[in-house]
Amino acid sequence: MPQLPDDLDAVAVRTWCSLALEALGRERAEIDAINVYPIADGDTGTNLYLTVESAAAAVEAVFAAHETGATAPATADAVRAMAHGALIGARGNSGTILAQLLRGMAGVLADGGDAAHLRRALTRAADAARRAVAHPVEGTVLTVAAAAAEAAEGEESDLRTVVHAAYDGALAALARTPEQLAVLGRAGVVDAGGRGLVAVLGALVETVTGQAPVRGPRTAHGKAPTPVDGGSVVGLPVGGTPVEGVPAGGFPAGGVPEAGVPVGEGPLDCPEDGVAGPAFEVIYLLEAGDEQVARLRTRLDALGDSLVVVGGDGLWHVHVHVDDAGAAVEAGVEAGRPYRIRITHFATESGHDLRVQTEPAQRAVVVVVPGDGLAGLCTEAGATTVIARPGEPPASGELVDAIRRAHAREVVLLPNDAALRHTAAAAAEQARTEGVRVALVPTRAAVQGIAALAVHEPDRGFDEDVVAMTAAAGATRYAELAVAERQSWTMAGICQAGDILGLIDGDVAVIGVDVPATARTVLDRMLAAGGELVTLVLGEDVPDSLADALEEHVREGHLAVDTVVYRGGHQRAPLLIGVE
Q1: What is the mean pLDDT of the segment spanning 188-215?
Q2: Cα 34 from Cα 42, distance rounded (Å)
Q3: How many CA within 13 A on the CB side of residue 541?
Q4: CB-based burial of residue 313 (10 Å sphere; 0-12 exposed, 13-18 middle, 19+ buried)?
Q5: Can you give the pTM of this predicted structure?
Q6: Could you tell me which residues come within 8 angstroms of residue 150 by beta carbon, excluding any fewer than 6 positions away?
Q7: Nearest CA-CA partner of 277 in 234, 245, 320, 315
Q8: What is the rounded CA–CA span in Å between residue 185 and residue 483?
């Protein structure tokens, strides 16, 4: 029999992650089935499973790095890896909140894993998760986490007693969630995210005590109630043994709804008040400072609901439900560097039409390009082009004319330049007054426009097409090479007139003396963060040999990364670079 831990050391954290993953693997289908809040999209169990899977993989990586050593990793390394893995792999509203709970716990457990530290860790986790949610709602996983922390605070004994208290407190709170949140009461289910947290805490009980919480026989409604200490059922009943806080006979009849569709009177249309919710879920990781994130929270809160922003120390996980997915991504671009962008259309994912859709119509793409070469490329792809010649950015009237030339009822506009954002917005607004449905995708560089155009499919729904194009553009980092016109200060130091500047995502990152060496340095810096495809757009006077050399450089230094090359013609920059 394995030795039981007296505190949560690195080995115990590893065991906890593994057992939590197993528990969620067993229960995720049932958790998916009771997922009715905030959106009945039937994926809470799966999202929690994937989040913990990422956390467990990060912990395993720490142990793998210590395989040749005589000792296990430090506890601090294990808990921080767990939190970081959950942060970067968080899925959905529930997974994002769980990531913040684990991050809050890690901040305390890194200093010690005894009973006192665990009590403080649970309290900090519950507080951190509540602060991360823009508008906390009772009867959710936040309530369950707070109850677990409160129950643990009342115990001054050993680690096992504290863990049991937290688990029991969470179970009791979970049973009361239908009384706190009307949508759960109407559906006859407990909160799905809260049930997932109970599974994670149950894994912690098993880690510390060596025994999993006893699972009782299934009820007639298909739920699996959970007895504690061999006693009464205090988990997820819809009938059978009474539970504190649950009326005799359990929750309202109906049990687990099919595929997340609630049962009871009236349709489930919304998070709280019966009004149809936003159409898209937008999730991305964001590199940004605290001040930028504070402004981002305010902007995203005005755009939609279910806003959760978790993380810190320069790396954040952003989750929000919105109608304008492009605006949510653009807000992230303005705050910092968003990546791993995922946009989900609820009607498509859940199979339930959660909002009224307009019928797709004839569609066109209008794209601003920096040179004749890319104009030809985009025209061949079916787009209407506007050329932005060096020093001559197009006016809003030119963009309106291009939208008119497209002869389409629906238009996707790609400005491909941050400086054109307001110009493009004015053009889109003008076109809308003329009866054209226009979506502005906030592309900041031509390579982002190329990526967006590559996934354009005119036969699918307009919103879906815009979402796919926005996601492709947002997943593309961009760079360009420029020649310094004068001596000046830059983020990379002082440059002299004639120096070659490598700008990454709009900021000077490299100062070089020639184009080839500067381009190689820029590529290496961009690919250090990962990538699968490099796009090179060569200026009019750049020889083909440079493209060949850069392709070889990528091939030799970065396995499994493909390179595509286009001729841009007469453009401002000798070389444009995109990394997807």
Answers
A1: 90
A2: 7
A3: 5
A4: exposed
A5: 0.57
A6: 169
A7: 320
A8: 65
The residue with tokens 């990546």 is 339
Q: Once rounded to an integer, what is the mean pLDDT over residues 416-439? A: 87
**Selection from 223, 263, 267 nearest residue 246 by Cα:** 223
Question: How far apart, in whole angstroms, are the C-alpha atoms of residue 429 and residue 39?
Answer: 31
The pair phi, psi for residue 95, each rounded to 5°, is -65, -35
Evaluate whether 320 touches 300 at the Cβ level (below 8 Å). Answer: yes
Q: What is the DSSP string of 179-210?
A: HH-HHHHHHT---HHHHHHHHHHHHHHHHHHS
Residues 6 or more apart in contact with residue 264 via CB below 8 angstroms = 185, 186, 187, 188, 252, 254
Cα distances (Å, whole numbers) of residue 429 to 411, 426, 463: 12, 5, 18
* Residue 347: per-residue pLDDT: 56
Q: pLDDT tens-digit profile of 272-320?
A: 443 457 888 888 889 999 999 999 999 999 998 889 999 998 999 999 9
Tokens of 280: 């898209």
202 or 363, greater pLDDT:
202
Given a cut of 90, whether residue 372 has pLDDT beyond it is no
| Gap between the Cα atoms of 148 and 386, Å rounded | 59
Residue 406 has what pLDDT?
A: 86
Q: What is the DSSP letter of 232?
A: S
Closest CA to 447 of 348, 324, 555, 531: 531
